[in-house]
Every structure is written in structure tokens, then in C-alpha cells.
């Protein structure tokens, strides 16, 4: 029973972190969104194959946010130089 509670807690945390990451991304906070999505991705990975779809979805979001964050960093650097 305790094992199921731990999985439920991890799943809840992963879903929450993923949602926070999406909201932060939509608000333009790509760097912080990336951190939250990375945390969610890690939790999904530890839960195993039963959550593979959620893990893949989270990873795709993370890649998109990371790409946007990298573009933003490059444009800021170009303005400085």
C-alpha cells in the first residue's frame, strides 16, 4: 500500500510541476519553466513505463521551452555585443 501512495505522490508532484512549467512558459519565463519541466521529467522517469506517455509529453515540452530559452539568450547576447 505504501508503494502505491509513493507513486501517487510522485505522480501528483510531476503533474503539478508540469502544469507550473507550462504556465511559466506561457508567461514568458522560459528559464524557470525549463527547471520545473526538468523536475517533472525526472519524476516521470522514476515511475516507469506506466507513465511513458506523460514522460514523453513532458520531455517534448521541455525541448520546446529549452529551444525558446536558448533563442532568447542568444538574442540578448547579440544585443550586448
What does the model show?
- Helix 1 packs antiparallel against helix 2.
- With 81 residues, the chain is an all-alpha fold.
- The chain is built from three helices and no strands.
- The protein is elongated and about 55 Å long.
- It has one domain.
Short description:
The chain is an all-alpha fold and 81 residues long. It is built from 3 helices and no strands. The protein has one domain.
Overall structural domain count? 1
The beta-strand count equals: 0
Distance, first to last CA: 58 Å
**What general outline do the C-alpha atoms trace?**
elongated
> Which percent range describes the beta-strand content?
under 5%
Can you write the helix and strand succession as a string?
Answer: HHH
Low-confidence segments, given as residue ranges, are none
Secondary-structure-based class equals: mainly alpha
Oligomeric state of the chains? single chain
Largest sheet, in brief, is: none
Q: In angstroms, what is the radius of gyration?
A: 15 Å
Mean pLDDT: 81
- Number of H- or I-type helical stretches: 3
Which percent range fits the helix content? over 70%
Protein name: TPR-like protein
What topology emerges from the helices and strands here?
Blueprint: H1 2-26, H2 30-47, H3 52-80
Helix pairs in contact: 1-2, 2-3
